[in-house]
Write a structure and sequence with these properties.
Radius of gyration: 20 Å
Shape: elongated
Helix content: 40-55%
Strand order of the largest sheet: 1-2-3-5-4
Structural class: alpha+beta
Oligomer: single chain
């Protein structure tokens, strides 16, 4: 397995790049999130890779960050999602943006990605929710606050202890967190008050 390639950019034309590594030209397909930040032809670059082996081809994919590759690999495990759709997801939104869509069950945003219909979007939400994990969901949905902070603890309490769905817990905590930093207990209390009013 090829974990990464480091070499000189010999050519690039969206969404592909040819990387000269010691005199060997490797063709890589990249998401637009990676392609748009590549340096000019002739510059040195390091790309994290994923090799896809099919009956008719071996295709090498290149990513600027480990997070992008991790999401790409996670998407490939979803029923009905292949490399083309996985690249389209990464080209259409950031890793954090995708995680926010999963948390909020935002099917409308997911169906804006080329190749994703409503049924595929629903599968993405259902199958990726557990793979992303509660801690990452908090990071993705709490506007940059650390998963170990009050937001993360309150999220875990609402979802794991009280049975709220992740999307609902996120909505309640977003409303409860308005107006400044709060303790975990204060966030839970405010979230429950908001839930009771609805």
């Amino acid at each position: 397995m090829i974990g990464f390639l480091q070499g000189r950019i010999a050519a690039k034309a969206a969404p592909g790049v040819i990387l000269d590594v010691g005199g060997v030209g490797y063709e890589l397909e990249t998401p637009m999130s990676t392609f748009l930040v590549l340096p000019a032809v002739g510059a040195e670059v390091r790309l994290i890779t994923h090799l896809s082996v099919r009956e008719d081809a071996h295709v090498l994919y290149g990513f600027g960050t480990e997070e992008e590759r991790r999401l790409f690999r996670g998407l490939l495990k979803v029923s009905g999602v292949g490399p083309k759709i996985a690249l389209a997801v990464l080209s259409g939104m950031s890793v954090a943006g995708f995680e926010r869509c999963v948390v909020a069950e935002d099917l409308a945003a997911l169906t804006k990605v080329p190749g994703i219909g409503r049924k595929t979007a629903e599968r993405l939400v259902v199958e990726m929710r557990d793979r992303i994990g509660h801690k990452q969901l908090v990071v993705a949905s709490a506007d940059g606050e650390g998963a170990g902070g009050a937001q993360g603890e309150a999220f875990d309490a609402l979802v794991l202890a009280m049975g709220y769905k992740p999307a609902e817990a996120t909505r309640l905590l977003k409303a409860a967190g308005a107006g400044g930093p709060h303790s975990t207990e204060e966030l839970i209390r405010r979230a429950l008050q908001i839930a009771a009013q609805n």
